[in-house]
Specification:
The protein is α/β, with parallel strands linked by helices. The protein is built from 12 helices and 23 strands. Strands 11, 12, 13, 14, 15 and 16 form a 6-stranded mixed sheet that branches. The chain has a 5-stranded mixed sheet with strand order 3-2-1-6-10, with helices on both faces. A 5-stranded mixed sheet has the order 20-19-23-21-22, with helices on one face.
């Protein structure tokens, strides 16, 4: 698949092609243009944008990486974004109607005229929904653009979802904090504001780079502090980020600064290994962070599809595709067919029975049938699909890597490692989603030789991982 990002006057590409060894052959490429491709996040001219995309894709033909399916990343300003707290007493079936009313009240527009998707996240007792809506008329332009150059648009993602993905693993599961995602370009800074739930929906910052480069950022931060919004961390990315000294920058802006490159090395190294480059080059994270974030997000959310409700761009008629419950339909059809067969058999048997003289019947003893015991079905674990995160909470270097090797030996492959927030965990913890509680017994069995007891915790269903293991000091 090709991950393609459109900005005001540039096209950026990450081509990731799966190999026979289940790895990815990858290449990145970008091209800037003298004319605007987007204006306020909208396509300026279909022919111009199609031509720019085609010209950029020519750089992939030499490497035989050109594919037809396009995953498109668009600037945040292309979308209308609604963020709302979910009332605790609302029924799940009423959430969509609730969002439509909120959208209408906020933007004075009907959500039916937009392609949309929303994300939900719960921390403690609070659940927040973040909805991204893209105009149907603009989506028609995108389909027409890619149709002109014989490419297929298969998915869409706001850039802020990719940015949030790149530091989500560093967040506390129980504590709410505010973050600045700052991109440092040669002549300006661009900042996006997040909290532990996701994108805040606040206007993005565009600040000029001056001699005292941290001064405009500090002034903005103080402006938000006057509104009782305090930022706890600043994630620093962008082409010029490597030129910044972390300690001096932190002191100047007044917010603890985390360079994105360090976060990637500590928490997302496994994804970089999946995207090898020629000549042992490393992935240019700071220039293509939005594409890397999109790749990681899609890899961990294979069912995600912004375009699951779409329209036929040729006829310009809206066509809604529903995700029908396949399992229930199959059960219904199977039951219907079985009932039909049984009914037909009994009907035929009845027609063939001879006349019976009831007075000539003799009393007979019918033996009691022996009940048949139905065996308990064995759960088949598709280990290659299970996502496990191993966090070192013991303070002993290398423990997370040791546990990863143990799990890999047992057949699991999607394993990420990192450090826990603290190194004072005395008892090893196993966090498992309620929907996959059977994994708890399986994991405990694998690790039983290394610790005698485990603290068991249920994991939020919204968590990317199916299992999180926090290694304590009891782990041998």
């Amino acid at each position: 698949m090709i991950y393609l990002s459109l900005s005001k006057n540039a096209v950026h590409i990450l081509a990731a092609k799966k190999t026979l060894l289940n790895q990815f052959q990858s290449v990145v490429y970008s091209k800037e243009f003298g004319t605007n491709l987007l204006e306020k996040g909208k396509v300026t001219n279909i022919d111009v944008v199609a031509s720019a995309i085609k010209e950029t894709l020519l750089g992939l033909e030499e490497k035989k990486m050109l594919e037809k399916e396009i995953f498109l990343i668009l600037p945040q300003e292309s979308f209308l974004t609604l963020r709302t707290v979910v009332p605790p007493d609302i029924a799940p079936s009423a959430v969509e109607a609730f969002l439509k009313d909120k959208f209408q009240a906020t933007f004075r527009l009907s959500l039916d005229d937009f392609q949309y998707i929303y994300f939900s996240k719960s921390i403690n007792d609070e659940t927040v929904l973040i909805l991204y809506a893209y105009p149907m008329l603009e989506l028609e332009k995108l389909y027409s653009t890619f149709n002109l150059i014989n490419l297929k648009l298969v998915n869409l993602l706001p850039e802020t979802v990719g940015y949030f993905t790149l530091f989500e693993k560093t967040l506390s599961l129980t504590k709410k904090e505010n973050f600045i995602y700052l991109k440092f370009y040669p002549s300006y800074f661009q900042a996006f504001l997040f909290d532990s739930f996701g994108y805040l929906g606040e206007p993005d910052w565009y600040l000029p780079v001056i001699e005292e480069q941290e001064k405009p950022i500090r002034e903005k931060i103080l402006e938000y502090e006057s509104k009782n919004i305090k930022f706890h961390r600043l994630i620093l990315s962008g082409p010029k980020a490597d030129e910044v000294r972390q300690d001096i920058f932190t002191k100047s802006v007044g917010v603890w600064t985390n360079p994105l490159r360090k976060i990637i090395v500590n928490f997302y190294q496994d994804y970089l290994k999946m995207l090898p480059f020629d000549n042992n080059q490393t992935f240019p994270v700071l220039n293509y962070d939005h594409l890397l974030g999109a790749f990681i997000f899609v890899f961990n959310n294979k069912d995600f599809n912004f375009l699951k409700k779409t329209f036929d761009y040729q006829s310009k008629q809206k066509v809604i595709y529903f995700n029908l419950p396949k399992k229930e339909i199959l059960i219904f059809l199977g039951s219907f067919l079985l009932a039909f067969v049984i009914f037909s058999f009994l009907f035929n048997e009845r027609k063939q029975l001879p006349s019976i003289n009831l007075f000539s019947l003799k009393s007979t003893t019918t033996p009691t049938p022996t009940p048949t015991l139905t065996p308990t079905p064995t759960i088949i674990i598709k280990k290659e699909e299970i996502k496990i995160k191993v966090l070192n909470g013991s303070g002993v270097a290398g423990k997370a890597g040791e546990v990863k090797k143990i799990l890999e030996k047992a057949g699991y492959s999607q394993i990420l490692t990192g450090n826990a927030e603290e190194f004072n965990f005395k008892i090893t913890e196993i966090h498992v989603k309620k929907s996959k509680t059977y994994l708890k017994t399986e994991i405990k069995k694998i690790l039983t030789d290394y610790t005698s007891s485990f603290k068991e915790v249920f994991l939020d269903e919204q968590e990317n991982s199916d299992v999180i293991i926090i290694i304590g000091t009891d782990f041998k």
